[in-house]
């Protein structure tokens, strides 16, 4: 296998096309509900392997490949409000002059504060998912269902 077999351009349209191929909607992707069947040329067995992985309903503490799309580049991309919708971060960092200067003033990003008590609770991951879901629904980036 070569890198170009997994090539995905770093733009929202390419990522949306991938999500639409394996999921019914952004919401289905967000909750991890892959299409029951996908159609592909059997020569592209990697698609079948990826589909089998994301259809697996088992939980794994180690393998998060079924819950994210990763884009790796051989060049830098400019971070700004065009390609980042928001940053979720501990609320105590919102008042940091460096965070304000970099994330708000220079990059123009939306910051979403979360309460952080130093050690994550068992519900921490779910809380972040709910905050992200609400943000995406409010911004019309995803339907509520």
- Gyration radius, in Å: 18 Å
Strand order of the largest sheet: 1-2
How many domains? The number is 2
Kindly state the number of beta strands: 2
Q: Note the run of SSEs as H and E.
A: HHHEHEH
Low-confidence stretches: none
What's the helical proportion of residues?
25-40%
* Strand-pairing-aware structural class: mainly alpha
Main sheet: strands, sense, barrel = 2 strands, parallel
Average pLDDT over all residues: 80
Mass-distribution shape: globular
Distance between the termini: 36 Å
**Helical segment tally?**
5
- The percent range for strand residues is 5-15%
Please give the structural blueprint.
Layout: H1 12-22, H2 26-31, H3 45-55, E1 86-90, H4 97-106, E2 110-114, H5 124-138
Parallel strand pairs: 1-2
Can you describe what's shown?
The chain is mainly alpha-helical and 145 residues long. The chain has 2 domains: 1-75, no CATH class; 78-145, no CATH class. The chain is 37% helix and 7% strand. It is built from 5 helices and 2 strands; from the N terminus they run αααβαβα. It has helices spanning 12-22, 26-31, 45-55, 97-106, 124-138; strands at residues 86-90, 110-114. Strands 1-2 form a two-stranded parallel ribbon. Helix 4 (97-106) links the parallel strand 1 (86-90) and strand 2. The longest helix is centred in the last third of the chain and has 15 residues, at 124-138. The N and C termini lie far apart (36 Å).
């Amino acid at each position: 296998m070569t890198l170009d077999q997994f090539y995905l351009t770093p733009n929202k349209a390419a990522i949306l096309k991938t999500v639409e191929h394996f999921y019914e909607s952004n919401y289905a992707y967000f909750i991890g509900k892959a299409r029951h069947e996908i159609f592909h040329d059997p020569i592209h067995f990697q698609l079948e392997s990826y589909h089998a992985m994301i259809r697996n309903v088992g939980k794994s503490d180690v393998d998060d490949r079924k819950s994210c799309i990763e884009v790796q580049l051989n060049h830098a991309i400019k971070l700004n409000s065009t390609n980042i919708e928001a940053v979720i971060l501990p609320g105590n960092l919102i008042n940091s002059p460096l965070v304000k200067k970099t994330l708000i003033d220079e990059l123009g990003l939306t910051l979403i504060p979360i309460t952080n008590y130093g050690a994550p609770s068992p519900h921490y991951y779910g809380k972040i998912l709910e905050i992200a879901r609400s943000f995406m629904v409010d911004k019309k980036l995803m339907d509520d269902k």
